[in-house]
Specification:
single chain; mainly alpha; two-stranded antiparallel sheet
C-alpha cells in the first residue's frame, strides 16, 4: 500500500488496503476499476470516505462531502482532484505504505 497526500481542509492521507477496496465495492455495488472509468460524485465521496477513514476514525460520509468541497476548491478541477485518488487506488495493489513524494 502507498499513502498518498490529499489536500482538503488540510493535508490528509489516502490509503487503500484490500479491506478498504472491498468496502468501497460493497458500498457502490461496482468494482473499483469500473468506478474509475465512470466516476460519479457519490462514488468519489465514497472512495474518499474509505480512503481517509484509516487516519480519521470519526470521519462520516457527510463530513467527507465537506472535505470533497474543500478539495475541489484546492485542486481547481476534477481532473486534478482525481490524480491523488487514482494514484492511491492503483498503488493499493502493491508498493509499501510510505508517503509519496510531491
Amino acid at each position: 500500500m502507498k499513502i498518498v497526500p490529499f489536500t482538503a481542509d488540510k493535508e490528509r492521507h489516502l490509503k487503500f488496503g484490500m479491506n478498504t477496496i472491498i468496502q468501497i465495492e460493497k458500498a457502490t455495488g461496482k468494482p473499483v476499476a469500473e468506478l474509475l472509468d465512470t466516476v460519479s460524485f457519490e462514488a468519489i465521496r465514497t472512495i474518499l470516505f474509505y480512503g481517509l477513514k484509516w487516519e480519521d476514525k470519526k470521519l462520516t460520509e457527510e463530513t467527507t462531502g465537506n472535505l470533497f468541497d474543500d478539495a475541489v476548491e484546492h485542486y481547481g478541477d476534477m481532473e486534478e482532484l482525481m490524480k491523488p485518488i487514482t494514484e492511491a487506488l492503483v498503488a493499493s495493489f502493491g508498493n509499501k505504505a510510505v508517503p509519496s513524494k510531491k
